[in-house]
């Protein structure tokens, strides 16, 4: 890797509490200088301005949707309960995915059902709830980094990153670590969600679904005191009590997302930083700046080829310069909103000392990702540790030689040969 291929940009920023005294300018890196970072477009543009004043796009399902891209408009759609998800998850419905999903999944629920199920898990997935997992992250990193140091051709993805989220998550849930090799290959296929082999996609989905069902019904062992064990003991505290299907729906989101989704963002964050010496040096010299750096990386790193799921307006809604009519299909593009220049000046720059509004990577409102705090903790802890262990870390190959997984729900490098 030739670090000089990545340009550094001086950007004027407001003084951060983490910046050195008197620092008025920070070094930023343009996403345009990081190869293969952005995904292919997952929709087909129809018109730049339809009758509502909004662009129109065609989804892979063939349905036409209003494309909402401005930050304030996307935020309103995400927080407004009048935009429903349930009616999109039907046979032949408007979707980016090639198949429907179980209706009890949190991402498919509308009010009030969503609030009932989400409130059941909020405490365990809060910042305080996941803080106790830091020790697990550190122990796994201890073991994995020792393995990496022993390798003749070290691959940071295969040896460290790939196993970290799943090992943390099975410990959190109380799933035997020996089960990982059974369900995890199918989890990857499900989250890629390719339409090239729908029977294979469904086969893998139902393997994971039935596996989680067996855990909930105690047909497979779970560790005492793990999240599954505690959820089963507390299910009657919900009103009405949570059914087996509802518990499976909650836990399926964790088995998939707290592994595959966290890994995707973590791998891309490392991929960016090892090609951006200024940002890596900042992390090495100022580990306290890591939370801000992670937030900025989250802003610019799309999870997969889409950023949110389509919604249907159940009433007329006024946006800033347009009106969404009742019954309209809407794609609130959080990826575009995170690069709205009216909200994030010079949005193409990764500026770790950027001030302003919060990014929408984890969604907002009712469908805000329940694993957001877990992802932040794992990514931040891992990056700080890697910077401490390997202050001169760099890619050992050209970026063009790095292989990628690319699908509807996730996109990431699958190998990161490194040197130090």
Automatic annotation (TrEMBL):
Keyword Iron: yes
Annotated keywords: Heme, Iron, Metal-binding, Monooxygenase, Oxidoreductase
GO terms of molecular function: heme binding; iron ion binding; monooxygenase activity; oxidoreductase activity, acting on paired donors, with incorporation or reduction of molecular oxygen
Keyword Acyltransferase: no
Pfam family, one: p450
PANTHER family referenced in this protein's UniProt entry, alphabetically: CYTOCHROME P450 YJIB-RELATED (PTHR46696:SF1), P450, PUTATIVE (EUROFUNG)-RELATED (PTHR46696)
Family indicated by similarity: Belongs to the cytochrome P450 family.
Protein name stated in the entry: Cytochrome P450
């Amino acid at each position: 890797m030739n670090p000089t291929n990545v340009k550094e940009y001086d950007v004027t920023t407001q003084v951060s509490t983490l910046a050195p005294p008197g620092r008025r300018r920070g070094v930023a890196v343009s996403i345009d200088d990081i190869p293969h970072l952005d995904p292919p477009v997952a929709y087909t543009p129809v018109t730049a301005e339809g009758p509502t004043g909004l662009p129109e796009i065609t989804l892979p399902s063939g349905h036409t949707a209003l494309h909402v891209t401005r930050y304030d408009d996307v935020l309103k759609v995400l927080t407004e309960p009048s935009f429903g998800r349930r009616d999109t998850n039907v046979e032949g419905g408007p979707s980016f995915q090639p198949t429907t999903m179980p209706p009890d999944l949190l991402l498919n629920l509308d009010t009030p059902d969503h609030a009932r199920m989400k409130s059941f898990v909020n405490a365990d997935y809060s910042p305080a709830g996941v803080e106790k997992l830091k020790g697990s992250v550190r122990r796994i990193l201890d073991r994995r980094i020792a393995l990496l140091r022993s390798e003749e051709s070290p691959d940071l993805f295969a040896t460290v990153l790939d196993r970290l989220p799943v090992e943390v998550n099975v410990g959190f849930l109380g799933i035997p670590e020996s089960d990982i090799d059974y369900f995890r290959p199918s989890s990857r296929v499900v989250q890629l969600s390719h339409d090239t082999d729908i029977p294979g996609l469904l086969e893998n989905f139902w393997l994971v679904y039935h596996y989680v069902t067996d855990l909930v019904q105690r047909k497979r062992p779970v560790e005492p005191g793990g999240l599954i064990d505690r959820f089963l003991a507390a299910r009657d505290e919900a009103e009405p009590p949570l059914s087996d299907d509802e518990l499976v729906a909650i836990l399926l989101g964790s088995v998939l997302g707290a592994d595959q989704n966290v890994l995707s963002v973590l791998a891309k964050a490392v991929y960016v930083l090892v090609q951006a010496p200024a940002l890596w040096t900042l992390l090495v010299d100022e580990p306290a700046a890591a939370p801000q750096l992670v937030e900025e990386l989250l802003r610019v790193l799309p999870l997969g080829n889409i950023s949110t799921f389509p919604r249907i307006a159940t009433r007329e809604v006024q946006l800033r310069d347009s009106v969404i009519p009742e019954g309209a299909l809407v794609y609130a593009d959080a990826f575009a909103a995170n690069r709205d220049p009216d909200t994030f000046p010079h949005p193409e720059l990764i500026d770790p000392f950027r001030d302003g509004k919060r990014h929408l990577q984890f969604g907002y409102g009712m469908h805000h990702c329940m694993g957001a705090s877990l992802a932040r903790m794992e990514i931040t802890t891992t990056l700080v540790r890697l910077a401490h262990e390997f202050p001169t870390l760099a890619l050992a190959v050209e970026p063009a030689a790095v292989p990628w997984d690319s699908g509807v729900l996730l996109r990431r490098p699958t190998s990161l040969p490194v040197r130090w």
